Amino acid sequence: MKKAVFSIIALCLIGIQGSFAQKKYEANWESIDSRPIAPWFEDAKFGIFIHWGPYSVPAWSPKGTYSEWYQYWLQSKSLFGNGKFTGTEVYDYHVETYGPHFSYYNFGEQFTARNFDADKWAKLFADAGAKYMMITSKHHDGFTLWPSKEANKTWGFPWNAKDVGAKRDLLKELEVAVKKTDVKFGTYYSLYEWFNPLWKKDKEKFALEHTHPQFKDLVENYKPDLIWSDGDWSAKPETWHSPELLKWLFNESAVAESVVVNDRWGDGARFNHGGYYTTEYQSELDGSKPWEECRGIGFSFGYNANEDSWDYASDRTLIYLLLNVVSNGGNLLLDIGPDANGNIPPIMQDRLLAIGDWLKVNGEAIYGSRKWERACQWSKKGKKDWKPEGAHYLPADFILKQTIDPEPGYGVREIFFTKKGEDVFAIVPKWPKETLVIRDMKATSTTEITLVGTDLKVEFVQKGKNLILKVPNLTPDELPSKYAYSFKISNVVK
Fold this sequence. Notes:
Layout: H1 2-22, H2 29-33, H3 39-44, E1 46-50, H4 70-76, H5 89-98, H6 107-110, H7 118-127, E2 132-138, H8 149-155, H9 170-178, E3 184-190, H10 197-201, H11 203-222, E4 226-230, H12 237-240, H13 242-251, E5 260-261, E6 277-280, E7 291-296, H14 315-327, E8 331-336, H15 346-362, E9 376-378, H16 398-401, E10 413-420, E11 423-428, E12 435-438, E13 442-443, E14 449-451, E15 459-463, E16 466-470, E17 485-490, E18 492-493
Helix pairs in contact: 4-5, 7-9, 7-15, 8-11
């Protein structure tokens, strides 16, 4: 009898899985938005963004701006970001450095990637504890890291890494290397291109005759686990025919049943349609929908030789940023900018490896976790959520002001929380002195508390609504990790 019951259950499960796999999506947002996001994405928590292309050759823009926008700054003589600008800074730099007649398109030949070693990159991503990565297969300048016939056709000259500069299919090399690891392979893809002649002449024709076939070529030949669309502000989804493109992706493509996508599919789609929600140089969302915050280790996404060491976020800052995002139910997509030769700057490698070291100890509190009933515990005194005034993009060090270095009159996030099953993790940005008071948490008769990364059991008492941990007296050398420490608390109630 038991065998029969188990057989029926198994058949039902197979039927459910089969119906999910066979579901056909329609070219409308109601249908597209009904597609679930693969659970592995919410479990991943940490990914690595890579901006790499011809803009990596000049590798320059004023501090507080994106160097990967070099072509746009150059040709439009405009600039925006954090700071005050005349608008001509990049143009003036370009003329002084390369001369007035040197075209941005000449950087394609100089984008040699001669030191690029895909296996070394992939190993770094894995050692950093990242569960996925995302590379700019094509940014807004239209240059592709793979041999795209559409790129050459609409531009009227070779404009891809296989035909100029590197003379290699850089995307394929990276795909092969990453797929040897447990890291998921993702491709960033810009829907539009600033100065493409066809885009400037006929936007809808550009979408249907350039973007759609190029996108399909990318998907079919490189089979990404994730697709990070961008350039969404430039036209409505109807102009891009995004629902039709996503219908093809989810029904007919080689990755139909597995691919994860974001929300940038046309002006007005972000935070409303598509897949997971994306923020950029922001703080946090409420976690009601899978989401991801992206930002650079420095300020720029692309490599910017104009940035100094102090312009890069410290490993402490990056770990706190990760905690803030994960405690709110999101993923952190942290960007690096390799140089034109394919070298990842040592300072970026150092930061990634520091995160990896922290995750080796505290990963249990991060990977696979979800948002608890509250993301953090604020100090009792002081205003919450300090932010700098007048910044277009939120600088990384805001999180230091909200944790260990508050501005006068402001409180701090004393504890970050995550949950996994019946366990709650209380992660503190600095080691407590003698006791740690967690407000509005009640232990049960089966509650146990351990210090993650050790075999130490932590004593505790319940005082009213507060759970008070008697923190062990450890020397700096005895602490399991640097900068933040995780307490695993089992079987508690509100």
